[in-house]
Amino acid sequence: MRTRSVVAPALGIVTFFGLWELLVRVGNVPSYSLRPPSQVLRYLFNDSTGFPKATWQTGADALEALLLALLIGLAFGSLMAASRWLEEAAQPVLILIQVTPWVAYSASVVLWIGGGSKPVLFVATLVCVPAFAFASMSGLRSADPAALELLRCVDASAWETLWHVRLPNALPNLFTAARFAVGLSLAAVYFTEGGALSNRGLGAIGAKALAATAALPLWSTVFCSALLGTIALVSISVLERVLLGWHASQRRAAR
Amino acid sequence: MSPDNAAIHVDGVSKRFDHVCALQDITLTVRAGEFFTLLGASGSGKTTLLRIIAGLERATNGTVEIEGGTPAAARRAKRIGWVPQSPALLPWRTVEENVRLLTQVNRSANRREPVDTAAMLARVGLAGFEKALPHELSGGMQQRVALVRAFALGAPILLMDEPFAALDEITRFEMRHLLVDLWQSSGAAVVFVTHSLAEAAYLSDRVAVLTSRPGRVSAIHDITAPRPRVPALEDTPEFFATVTSLRDSLRLAMDPGRS
Ligand SMILES: Nc1ncnc2c1ncn2[C@@H]1O[C@H](COP(=O)(O)OP(=O)(O)OP(=O)(O)O)[C@@H](O)[C@H]1O
Ligand SMILES: [Mg+2]
């Protein structure tokens, strides 16, 4: 069972990259569009400069946006869970943020806030807030009514109830939201970096490479972003294992 | 006016939900240290009455006094231990953390001498399970944790809403013996809701039989079996007679026209 959980995913990845390599080499794919993964990797390790720093910057911005969105989302979610009025007032705004394609307005945000990392953080945080807000609202609200009643019988304060019952109950939802937000945050950071008139991050390298139709640096930014996303998801899974050991989703199957 | 040694005094309480009259003119007094059972068919308003006593629900008419004060004051002073129908354990807390939950909130009202919860867990057969999570326990074990959690408060009043309703007959049998054991050394007054005749007969000092829609007290039985009560009591003719008279009383309450 242990070997299967290592071998099977590795096999899947190898097959995927193998097919890609084959498709590009055998098929008639122009070299300015798609490159075989072997070439991208060779470029990344031998010829490139600035990728480690750019990857670090993009990763740091995406992480910061995620944490900010988590805090803001939790605050919104708590208020919405406490009051139907606030929920109904905030819901349409959050849904608007969620459904509006952020690629359409991110350039305007750069013009409004200016270049550098500020517009990047702004857009990435903004687009991630609704997921965290909705997750915390439903998680805080869905706490076991019998447990809430139990605490009422000893006159626990709202804070004590939040801390001991509602927040732990919202954790599974928050983890689900975080998995979803990782990709969103990375995409928003990458894209906004590209339009942020600066040399910061993978997005800036990608935008320049695209303008020069240079496929190798462009695909190198794709690989580095994928690496960031993978690291983020693995970290989330590890945290989940530690914090959600009690939850049905984390229990090891009996077989 | 409530008598001096009253733990709970319910005076003329009625409760109406939209079109249902759930409770009508309930008056009863639970003495300090007494085991008082509410026996009634489903829908007779037992849960509603218990929630009104705890102040979790507002009565349409009438008043509830707990130790001479309001239910809210009793909750603030942590004078009420609540045992819900489901164990309501927090799934992320271990057994001992669940047992301690109620002492970790509203700390200023905690008893000065803490209850020895480890000994209590051992007494209900949960020694060695202190670090277990709720999902690792059987339903009966979870309900035992819920009992210990309530007794761990050291509160003089315990309100229990059919705590054994979801358990099988054999487990229920064990649970009522554990409950008597814990209660006899606690000195607390208990209001115990059930529709099990055997539970009512084995546990109680007095049993109030409720009618349905509207819920009213149709009879109050004194259970005179000596204490301490032991499992062998359930095999005696006296116990059988008590169960029979409770059954007749319950039938009469459910369908007054028939007799
Ligand atoms: N929140 C509520 N809204 C409307 N009606 C209610 C509500 N709570 C209880 N009732 C009604 O009040 C009556 C008594 O309900 P209650 O839950 O107190 O009965 P019970 O004796 O505890 O029943 P059971 O043995 O099934 O638990 C029922 O007819 C029920 O439909
Ligand atoms: Mg009930």
From TrEMBL, chain A:
Annotated membrane topology: Multi-pass membrane protein
Pfam families: BPD_transp_1 (PF00528)
UniProt-listed CDD domains: TM_PBP2
Compartments it resides in: Cell membrane
SUPFAM superfamilies, A to Z: MetI-like
This protein's GO CC annotations: plasma membrane
Regions that span the bilayer: 6-24, 65-86, 92-113, 120-140, 170-190, 226-246
Biological-process GO terms, alphabetical: transmembrane transport
DNA-binding in keyword set: no
Residue span(s) of domain ABC transmembrane type-1: 55-240
PANTHER family, per database record: ABC TRANSPORTER PERMEASE PROTEIN, ALKANE SULFONATE ABC TRANSPORTER-RELATED, MEMBRANE SUBUNIT
Protein name: Unannotated protein
TrEMBL record, chain B:
Protein name per UniProt: Unannotated protein
Keyword set includes Transport: yes
Coiled coil: none
One Pfam assignment: ABC_tran
Organism listed in the record: freshwater metagenome
SMART domains, sorted: AAA
Presence of keyword Nucleotide-binding: yes
Record GO terms (molecular function): ATP binding; ATP hydrolysis activity
CDD domains: ABC_NrtD_SsuB_transporters
InterPro entries noted in UniProt: AAA+_ATPase, ABC_transporter-like_ATP-bd, ABC_transporter-like_CS, ABC_transporter_ATP-bind, P-loop_NTPase
Keyword annotations: ATP-binding, Nucleotide-binding, Transport
Residues covered by the ABC transporter domain: 8-237
